[in-house]
Task: structure prediction
Amino acid sequence: MKTRLLKPVFAIWISAVSLCYGCLLNYSSTPALTTSGPSQFPQSQKLGLNKNGLTMIAFFHPQCPCSAATAAELGKILTHHDFYKPHANLKVYAVISKPSGTDVSFTKSSLVSSLEVTRGVELVIDQNDVLSRQFGALASGQILLFNQQGEKLFSGGITTERGHEGESSGGAALGNYIRGQRTALKIAPVFGCSLESSH
Result:
């Protein structure tokens, strides 16, 4: 009798686990809602356009677990190609979201700590998300790249899924642009949390 009862219970448990796993996989591979941002570098009091080369702006939500992978991939790109060196003519900003109503502790996280020690990256706290709105960034992990004339070259993410490190089409395209190589990819999906979330 007990065996008969256990079989349907076990079947239900397996179905529930499979459903949850499927939902998790679907979420991790679903891109965030984004815009491609402005076609021209907007006037900004906090961010300056590099007139001698390229300007990269990476937007991060400090509490987004998905974006640790983006920070890691960004570090790999800069370290592998020595883009942090002065002769590389590349300016890199990491813009840290601080939505309205949050205190200074909101911007303290392991993600921000990892960006602080990434060579060649200048951290900028985005009070009330003024910069993210100005540059049209909606999701953590979105990266914009501009040339010295202020023309946008690339907009997107550099991971394949939420929280997953590894080679991606966005990362490859970003590296090509920085090396001065032609690439057809101008937009890549972003896998991260909403920048305006206060959680």
